[in-house]
Specification:
Length: 168
């Protein structure tokens, strides 16, 4: 579509693909959000494909920085392009869960499940074009730092200020 509009109307267009965005004010249906809610409530979390999955998690601030970088440099000659914005470093699901447990200060009860229909085992953003556009590698927030920020925000919003340990 971006190419069509660019070609038809002489409008420079950038299509952006975001990879597993997480952080404050995010989507409640995403794993980081629903897992946090369940862990704090002492409920089990569903772990699909028995945890054998990897995702390229991208903290919301990194998405914003990428969008602003793209806005500052429109495509040349009223062209069109598609750029990925992601960490370019997929994290195994079980590592993600371990980092989330550490940020919350509680152990999760894991409910292992088979692969969901229509899901994929791995996602990874190739950010080569974004880095070339910026003239440097785009900095991405480490997962532990981003999850810690999200959990702090979640507790402030939802009243879960006190962390305590519980055996898994």
């Amino acid at each position: 579509m971006a190419h069509s509009y660019s070609h038809l109307y002489g409008l420079p267009c950038s299509g952006l693909r975001f990879f597993t965005v997480y952080g404050p004010w995010g989507r409640p249906d995403m794993a980081y959000w629903s897992f946090t809610k369940a862990i704090l409530a002492g409920e089990p979390i569903p772990v699909f494909n028995h945890g054998r999955m990897r995702r390229d998690f991208t903290y919301i601030d990194d998405i914003t920085a990428g969008v602003l970088a793209v806005l500052d440099q429109p495509p040349a000659d009223d062209g069109a392009r598609v750029l990925n914005i992601g960490g370019n470093a997929p994290v195994p699901l079980m590592e993600f869960i371990a980092e989330l447990q550490a940020a919350i200060g509680l152990s999760a009860r894991l409910e292992m499940k088979p692969m969901q229909a229509g899901d994929v085992t791995d996602t990874c953003a190739d950010v080569t074009r974004l880095n070339l556009l910026m003239g440097r590698p785009h900095r991405f927030t480490p997962l532990a730092e981003g999850l810690s920020r999200f959990v702090k925000w979640y507790r402030q919003q939802h009243g879960h200020a006190i962390a305590f340990s519980r055996a898994a």
